[in-house]
Design brief:
By secondary structure, this protein is an alpha/beta fold. The protein is about 35% helix and about 20% strand. The protein contains 16 helices and 19 strands. Helix 4 runs parallel beside helix 11 and helix 14 packs across helix 15.
Length: about 425
């Protein structure tokens, strides 16, 4: 089947699924091969569950006229998504970066969605499958789209950019994330800046945070640029979009000036100075796209972090900072320093392994252990094999896994404490609380 014909079919059945267990009546089911499964084997079940058609790349499973056989189901999904995106002449904002891209995406979506019909990446659908699914979920009446793009190796952002074809883009920062896949920090810079290179090639616009290292230099070839930065005295006379930090504890507060010269203050529900950059980026996007100041403020103030990203929880008389969705040396350092600055009677830091650091892993885990030791926490607990040597050397409590940690944690009967829980997704530190936040 030609792409145009498949697209005509998609327009009649605009819901797409790759999971036979989550099929919606009348949808298109794409049989994707994964590491542990072959979607072709579930195509008949998807049709039985109500899918209108099943796109498969194994002719042996095609029995009947509701099967559409293609050479590669995943590639067809990606090409269909790109074709659908090309039907829209709207701002499509691509977001990537080492830290904060999901929180930035959520904040930007809240701000832009307060004034425009917006479509944006849900959850963490930010890879070679998630981006196409996000694009194919885009309704006809959308006015602005925000697409998150994740990567753990070079070439991935370029690939995703050529599917989503962003007209605008931003990199939150360049940090020590996925060092193993990227091949060190220089590899991260090269890989993440593929978004800039795509924008330079296509005449797109980049939003650049001047306060972040590397970004301005990496964006040198982009002709259309909007700069924003932190300023103590925002002024309409400055060429950059300026935002002022009013406070970073207990929550981040920021101020900005609208085009009429009126100052607005936004009191967020986000902790930590590192979240100021995420808020600043959302405000900058709002200002550039002419979202009224009052709407920007309401959007920022209404946003509550979720999904184990800097969540502030109250449990059993304790205040818990749950930041267990991901971790790398940059985000770990910021979380520790923010936690150390919190007013608390007793502080307990529970830190899990940072994964995918490759040959830098031992040194980076030692640095984090040393940093934690300097903060004067009442207890610092380390979890996972990567932290074991550093924890033992520093005389810290160490557990091989979250199961061992939980048995110790439950026996302590903590009350009236502030507890930081921070680690990579693979360590599953949230389970110390009984399964999640």
């Amino acid at each position: 089947m030609k792409l145009q014909d498949l697209y005509a079919l998609y327009l009649r059945h605009p819901s797409v699924s790759i999971d036979s267990r989550k099929v919606e009546p009348g949808c298109l089911f794409f049989a994707i091969k994964g590491d542990r499964f072959d979607g072709n084997q579930f195509a008949a079940a998807a049709l039985a569950a109500g899918a209108a058609f099943a796109v498969v790349d194994d002719p042996a499973v095609a029995r009947g006229d509701r099967f559409i056989v293609v050479e590669n189901s995943l590639q067809t999904l990606q090409e269909l998504a790109r074709h659908h995106r090309r039907q829209f002449f709207i701002p499509v904002i691509g977001i990537t970066g080492s830290n904060g891209k999901t929180t930035t995406k959520e904040l930007a979506a809240a701000v832009l969605g307060s004034h425009y019909r917006l479509h944006f990446t849900r959850g963490n659908l930010n890879n070679h499958i998630g981006v196409p699914l996000t694009l194919l979920a885009m309704p006809q009446d959308v006015e602005v789209a925000v697409i998150e793009m994740g990567a753990n190796h070079q070439g991935e952002i370029d690939f995703l950019s050529r599917i989503a074809e962003p007209s605008h883009g931003l990199i939150t920062n360049i940090g020590k994330a996925h060092l193993e896949g990227f091949g060190g920090i220089e590899g991260v810079k090269k890989g993440k800046s593929e978004l800039y290179r795509f924008l330079a090639e296509t005449g797109g616009m980049a939003f650049i945070n001047r306060d972040e290292r590397f970004l301005e230099g990496l964006a040198a070839t982009v002709q259309k640029k909007v700069f924003y930065r932190r300023s103590e005295n925002p002024s309409l006379q400055e060429r950059d979009i300026e935002i002022r930090l009013l406070a970073d504890r207990p929550f981040v507060r920021a101020a900005f000036i609208d085009p009429a010269g009126k100052e607005y203050e936004a009191n967020s529900q986000l902790i930590g100075i590192y979240n100021f950059n995420n808020i600043m980026t959302a405000i900058a996007l709002g200002k550039y796209f002419k979202v009224p100041g009052a709407k920007i403020v309401r959007a920022i103030e209404a946003y509550v972090p979720a999904n184990m990203r800097s969540q502030l929880l109250e449990r059993d008389g304790n205040t818990i900072v749950l930041d267990a969705y991901n971790a790398n040396p940059n985000s770990m350092r910021e979380a520790i320093l923010t936690f150390a600055a919190m007013d608390a009677r007793r502080r307990i830091a529970i830190l899990g392994d940072m994964l995918e650091l490759g040959e830098d892993s031992r040194q980076e885990h030692e640095r984090i252990a040393e940093l934690a030791a300097q903060q004067g926490f009442d207890d610092a607990v380390f979890v996972g094999p990567e932290f074991e040597a550093a924890a033992r050397a520093g005389g810290f409590r160490h557990f091989a896994n979250v199961g061992e940690l939980k048995r110790w944690f439950d026996a302590q009967g903590f009350r009236g404490c502030h507890i930081l829980i921070k680690g990579s997704r693979g360590i599953r530190l949230e389970e110390v609380l009984g399964g999640g936040g």
